[in-house]
Design a protein that fits this description.
Keywords (chain A): FAD, Flavoprotein, Oxidoreductase
Number of strands of chain B: 32
Oligomer: heterodimer
CATH topology of one domain in chain A: Enolase-like, domain 1
CATH superfamily of one domain in chain A: CO dehydrogenase flavoprotein, C-terminal domain
Distance between the termini of chain B: 63 Å
Number of domains of chain B: 4
GO molecular function, one term (chain A): oxidoreductase activity
Radius of gyration of chain B: 27 Å
InterPro entries (chain A): CO_DH_flav_C, CO_DH_flav_C_dom_sf, Diverse_Substr_Oxidored, FAD-bd_PCMH, FAD-bd_PCMH-like_sf, FAD-bd_PCMH_sub1, FAD-bd_PCMH_sub2, Mopterin_DH_FAD-bd
Shape of chain A: globular
Helix content of chain A: 25-40%
Order of helices and strands of chain A: EHEHEEEHHHHHEEHEEEEEEHHHH
Protein name (chain A): Carbon monoxide dehydrogenase
Distance between the termini of chain A: 41 Å
Strand content of chain B: 25-35%
CATH class of one domain in chain A: Alpha Beta
CATH architecture of one domain in chain A: 2-Layer Sandwich
Shape of chain B: globular
CATH architecture of the largest domain in chain B: 2-Layer Sandwich
Largest sheet of chain A: 5 strands, antiparallel
Structural class of chain A: alpha+beta
CATH topology of the largest domain in chain B: Aldehyde Oxidoreductase, domain 4
CATH class of the largest domain in chain B: Alpha Beta
Strand content of chain A: 15-25%
Largest interface: A-B, 39 and 43 residues
CATH superfamily of the largest domain in chain B: Aldehyde oxidase/xanthine dehydrogenase, molybdopterin binding domain
Organism (chain A): Streptomyces termitum
Chain lengths: 296, 801
């Protein structure tokens, strides 16, 4: 195995162009597990740790430009207000040691349906900035996940930055695992209210071949909120609306039975999380609940 | 023995001297290796290192049951850096099997594999990665055979036999060759007693396969010696038992296999069987070079036995005033492909199957099966754990049916000193079962809704789901549950259970120093601390050196069955007493004429001096021992004898000592998501005498947590169609984190057992028994669900199986 150590972003792009099978490695919290268990033996590892810009973030007018290697710990500590859903998701990632190393770029690169960041990115709304020697492009998060552990990257492209919409309303994130910390997702759910556009967005993790949005559930809720004038009157959402939203989220899931849980349970659990999160976010929106910050 | 020069590898344990002015028995002296372990400086067996060493790699079967059609090692052998590739055909001696009780386990598979992950071939290479790659180049052709995975498939008329042509000592009395051992326990007349019952409850219980999940994977280093023998440095639970199994397959006399215990990263029963010991020695002797083998976590799941999964059918009756009338139980343990400790586990499950209760009319049957599932054997609690899970669920069911409080119902039927076991054995030392239950119940309950904070929202760390943020209190219901259990201490059923201690007392630099040398495997239980405490108490010294455990001294027996403080602690005490007598003899010889008390008084060694029982100082130890040879004594110590259980009735004084613990579990259950947070696990246990109170509490808290693990998350999942393990990693075999570990208040009773050294009672296992059923009872209390299987998965709580 060859270990490539580019000193700059340009060198990294050149290396990736020259060796398209090279596997990028930053925190190594995912790649190294695969290598240690001998599930994967790439010809080249492309070490991105010398590239400073991948560890930087910038809070803009509408977006947070999050470097692919910004560790989860930094997101939890510094971006709780701007990215509350992702900050909550970051809290659920593995252990403190892993959170100090791992970043969103790794989750996106692996594109496992069980990656903790995905539901939060889907719910917030995001674009993934990827680049190659041919140039750069923005891939909408909805189009990023193309199959089980597959994404929309071309072989010569690297993930540079994730442009995530700054929260304009409450966001929530939950993950079910069979232990109270340091656990891989049995399933996960994220919800973001977007009062500026009077829409909601969702993200489901580990309950379909890829991370997905529950689009019918979103449409239903968007219509119900609009129809009842809820965005303006701030009334409590009726239990029947919440239930139907939850049922539609469950229906959107397309899970499997595996060693971590049954399909039936996953379908059930994402619905419960959806109903609860609608309650939490709506309470926040009405101003009676907790602050906007995504602190667990 | 031939002259033999040893090159000492890096990481070899050395003498550890502990110097405490105080620190006799009853004091909480600290572990000599504690700081080293916490700071990462302690040398575990996986840290052993030798110049020129090779790395060994095991190739394991990818299928559970198959004939081996062919093995082609040529490509592996041709790999650069490979020194040896061994298969069954390379085994050097007539003996090619090993085993704790029954020698049914092939060192390397011979013509057939019987479980997923069975060792088939070995490679030694100059780099671990080379060894791994070479092993992957060995071509094995399997012809798969149908798998036997449960009682129905094992005992079906056309069932394949896991072991053909059995001739072991149990083969004559078992009803089927796929049953390793069967033990009935029959007492009184169940048919008659059932007529007196006003209520009868039945239950079918399923206990999942738990792993010991010790953190230091199997590892060791074998160094070939000039005399044709081998020096083996290894993490194990019982050096001499290993030795007895290793030497015959190497074709060496036992004195040419010299074993030294290296740093052990936990055991819990999982190191009682051989893992890499023989393999490393074979490779070392073949190559003439030191060979190190270290399993990774994945391989470790295949490298040791697990706790027997069990199906248990229980029927209890009681009168309307709450007295048990009878018990009928059938316990089916899955022993997997090889016997390991299955026969003894059967003995425990059956003889302890009634629990710590008075019940005169009993019919219990326990069997262990041979199947193609992973082999199962010793794990903390050893057969008593599975039974406790079932009988405690039954106690709650009976109490509910009678409309009685579950604790009061148990107290009403609790055994006490003088009670007859279903085996006919009298419980002849304190059995404070009712008192332990009273104590855990009397504790104030933890406050409700602890997740509520003054300012912001919920503290999710105090809620089911923890940091995963699944609830802020929605769907959360509290439950409280109780359980109590009974465990035996020491090896039972007529086993000649003994331990050996050598103690040397001498003056070094004017100070008396005791050296304690045993073969006891320190696996975390605290023997290294306790032995020094005993030596201080008995010999009146402050400095005690603990010599590394090795086979140059007699057997210490196993570090299991809650027995080491009793047995090797007892041996150290016993030997110290003999050393003291020798010291006093020397004193009398040297000084007897100076003071009449030398001849007349009861003399003690205290504070480095010989004193009379009246406190008068006769001499210093330094003066007595000055100019003398070191006083050096090695003695064996035995507990009182036991007898085997009768094969038809199970009658017999089969156990040495009984030990009891009780738990109260308080849980919060997210009833919608099926997630559980255990808030508190209050424990009460009788320890006879706490030789080191801090260690005692640590053992009780650790055992309690291991019981919690199997209640809510721990299970090796085996595919019933293929008998293959589905989750051999810490990603999918979950063990409790600190966020899953509740507050564990511990109430320690010290009621002496007059038969035992210092009156002590073995403590390591009892808390693992009752913790699991207490948590289950609490979850049932919160949810109203029946829950007859452990671990409780979210699916079982939400109807989504």
């Amino acid at each position: 195995m060859d270990f490539l150590r580019p000193a700059s972003w340009e060198e990294a792009l050149a290396a990736k162009a020259e060796h398209p099978t090279a596997v990028p490695i930053a925190g190594g919290t995912d790649v190294m597990v695969e290598i240690n268990f001998d599930h994967r033996r790439p010809a080249y590892l492309l070490d991105l740790n010398r590239i400073e810009l991948l560890r930087e973030w910038e809070v803009g007018e509408e977006n947070v430009r999050l470097g692919a290697s910004v560790p989860y710990t930094q997101i939890m500590e510094n971006l709780r207000t701007e990215l509350p859903g992702l900050a909550l998701a970051s809290h659920t990632v593995a252990s403190p040691q892993i959170r100090n190393r791992g970043g969103v770029g790794g989750n996106l690169g692996t594109a496992s349906p069980a990656g903790d960041a995905h539901p939060a990115l889907l719910a917030a709304g995001a674009e993934v900035e990827v680049e190659s020697v041919r140039g750069s492009r923005l891939i909408p998060i909805d189009a990023f996940y193309t199959g089980v552990k597959r994404n929309a990257l071309q072989p010569d492209e690297l993930i540079k930055t994730v442009h995530i919409k700054k929260a304009d309303g409450p966001q929530q994130y939950s993950k079910v695992g069979t232990r109270n910390a340091m656990v891989i997702a049995v399933c996960a759910f994220g919800l973001a209210l977007h009062p500026e556009t009077r829409t909601v967005r969702t993200g489901i993790g580990s309950a379909a071949p890829t991370p997905i949005r529950a689009k019918e559930a979103e449409s239903f809720l968007n219509a119900a909120l609009e129809e009842g004038g809820f965005w303006d009157n701030g009334k409590i959402i009726t239990p029947s609306v919440a239930k139907q939203f939850a049922d539609l989220v469950s229906a959107a899931a397309n899970p499997i039975d595996d060693v971590r849980g049954t399909a039936k349970y996953r379908r059930h659990a994402v619905g419960i999380m959806a109903r609860r999160q609608l309650g939490w976010t709506w309470e926040q929106y009405r101003g009676t609940g907790r602050t906007l910050e995504g602190a667990a | 023995m031939a002259q033999h020069t040893r090159t000492v590898p890096a990481g070899t344990p050395t003498d550890v001297t502990q110097n405490h002015v105080k620190g006799g028995i009853g004091e909480s002296t600290l572990r000599p290796d504690g700081t080293l372990k916490v700071t990462g400086e302690f040398a575990y067996s996986s840290d052993m290192w030798h110049e020129d060493m090779l790395w060994g790699q095991t190739l394991r079967s990818t299928v559970a049951h198959a004939e081996i059609v062919s093995i082609d090692t040529s490509e592996a052998l041709a790999t650069s850096g490979v020194y040896a590739v061994l298969t069954y055909d390379d085994l050097p001696a007539a003996m090619k099997n090993y085993g704790l009780e029954i020698q049914d386990t092939p060192v390397l598979a011979h013509g057939k594999v019987r479980h997923h992950g069975e060792p088939v071939a070995l490679v030694a290479a100059d780099h671990p990665e080379t060894a791994r790659r070479a092993a992957a180049k060995i071509r094995i052709e399997y012809r798969e055979l149908p798998v036997v995975t449960d009682e129905a498939s094992a005992l079906a008329p056309d069932a394949p036999l896991v072991h053909e042509g059995r001739d072991d000592h149990h083969s004559g009395h078992v009803p089927h060759p796929n049953i390793v051992h069967r033990q009935p326990i029959v007492r009184g007349n169940v048919a008659e007693a059932r007529k007196r019952a006003d209520v009868i409850v039945e239950g079918e219980y399923v206990f999942g396969m738990q792993d010991q999940a010790f953190l230091g994977p199997e590892s060791g280093l074998a160094v070939p010696a000039e005399d044709g023998g081998v020096d083996l440095y290894v993490a194990t639970q019982w050096l001499h038992s290993d030795l007895k199994q290793i030497a015959p397959v190497l074709g060496l006399p036992e004195d040419k296999v010299r074993m030294t215990l290296s740093g052990v990263g936990g055991a819990f029963g999982g190191r009682e069987d051989i893992s890499m010991q023989i393999h490393a020695c074979l490779l070392a002797l073949r190559t003439g070079k030191p060979v190190k083998i270290v399993y990774n976590r994945f391989e470790s799941f295949f490298g040791h036995v697990h706790r027997h999964p069990a199906k248990l059918h229980y029927e209890h009756g009681a009168t309307k005033d709450g007295k048990l009338t009878h018990l009928k139980a059938r316990i089916v343990l899955d022993g997997g492909a090889y016997a390991s400790a299955s026969p003894a586990v059967v003995g425990n499950a059956s003889s302890l199957g009634a629990g710590p209760y008075v019940v005169d009319d009993v019919e219990i049957e326990a069997v262990a099966l041979y199947t193609n599932n992973p082999p199962c054997g010793a794990m903390r609690g050893f057969g008593a754990v599975q039974a406790c899970f079932a009988y405690e669920a039954q106690m709650d069911k009976l109490a509910a049916k009678l409309g009685m409080d579950p604790v009061e119902f148990r107290r009403l039927n609790a055994m006490e000193q003088g009670t007859l076991m279903p085996t006919g054995q009298v419980v002849d030392s304190p059995a404070p079962v009712a008192e332990l239950l009273r104590r855990v119940k009397a504790r104030p309950l933890p406050p409700e809704r602890q997740w509520e904070t003054a300012g912001e929202g919920a503290d999710v760390r105090a809620l089911p789901g923890g940091l995963s943020n699944t609830t802020h209190g929605e769907g959360v219901v509290r439950g409280v549950g109780y359980a109590v259990g009974i465990k035996n201490v020491g090896f039972s059923e007529g086993f000649d259970d003994y331990s050996t201690a050598r103690v040397v007392l001498q003056v070094i630099n004017g100070e008396p120093v005791a050296m304690v040398h045993t073969a006891m495997a320190e696996v975390g239980q605290g023997g290294v601390t306790v032995h020094a405490q005993i030596a201080r108490t008995e010999l009146g010294v402050t400095q005690v050196t603990i010599h590394p455990a090795d086979t140059q001294v007699g057997s210490a027996g196993s570090t299991s069955a809650s027995r080491q403080t009793y047995m090797t602690g007892g041996a150290v005490k016993n030997t110290c007493e003999a050393v003291r007598e020798k010291v006093l003899e020397i004193g009398r010889r040297k000084n007897g004429s100076y003071h009449p008390a030398w001849a007349t008084a009861e003399l003690l060694l205290e504070g480095g001096k010989v004193v009379t029982d009246g406190g008068e100082v006769l001499a210093t130890l330094a003066d007595v021992l000055e100019g003398e040879e070191p006083v050096d004594v090695e003695l064996e110590f035995r507990h009182r004898p036991t007898v085997p259980f009768d094969l038809r009735t199970g009658q017999g004084d089969g156990h040495v000592q009984y030990t009891f613990a009780a738990h109260r579990a308080v849980v919060e259950v997210d009833t919608e998501l099926g997630l559980v947070k255990v808030i508190e696990l209050a424990t009460a246990q009788d320890v006879g005498k706490a030789l080191n109170p801090l260690s005692v509490v640590g053992q009780i808290q650790g055992g309690t947590t291991q019981g919690l693990g199997v209640a809510v998350m721990e299970e090796i999942i085996v595919d019933p169609k293929t008998a293959k393990v589905r989750n051999p990693s810490f990603t999918d075999y979950l063990i409790p984190t600190i966020l899953d570990t509740p507050t564990i208040p511990v109430d320690v009773l010290e009621l002496a057992d007059d038969n035992a050294p210092y009156g002590l009672r073995g403590i390591g296992e009892a808390p693992t028994l009752s913790s699991t059923p207490a948590v289950l009872a609490a979850i049932r209390n919160a949810t109203g669900l029946e829950l007859n299987k452990t671990p409780v998965r979210p699916e079982a709580l939400t109807g989504t199986l």
